[in-house]
Amino acid sequence: MRVDSIAGRARAAARDLGHKGDSFSLKMLSIRAGMKTRDEHKSLTNAVGDLIKAGVLIRVERGRYAWKDLERTEPTIQEKMWRALRSARVTDVEELQELAGASEDYAREWLQMLARRKIVRRLKGGKWQMIEDQVEMPADEEKAERLRRMRRKRKEAQEAMDRAFAAIAEARIAIADMEE
Questions:
Q1: pTM score
Q2: Tell me: the pLDDT tens digits for 28-61?
Q3: 20 to 30 A from 177, CA-CA: which of 3, 52, 120, 158?
Q4: CB burial class (10 A; 0-12, 13-18, 19+) of residue 115?
């Protein structure tokens, strides 16, 4: 990214203003980035939106932003599969396993989720073809909801077991009192 571009100037100014963890306003950012015209300020506003989407800036409150220091982390398996799919356009489970390190079940389940959303379609021979390209990787909300349900049920079961153990303990105490 060119530093002399509006986006580059916005990024550099945001980093300067927020590198110590301080929040800043859009006006402060505009001044630091050297925006002079209304058009430049409007472009800066768009650049701030892009920086938020990229995860570089966070909105602290209305009109206030903070720089988010990003540590480069290894992409998730799902991100690797998404990149491989977008690059190849046609893939199969084995290729996703190899390129992304996914298990066979996970790759297959992920492709099926994409098929339900009409992003890919199944071809003959176990191949999958991308039919709708979008930049953002689709979130697997179905799986997230399934995991939330499972955690909720596990918690309910644990609470029921705790109540049962408490009742057993009370019964043992009552029996011990009767024997004395």
A1: 0.45
A2: 998 998 888 888 888 888 888 888 888 888 888 8
A3: 158
A4: middle
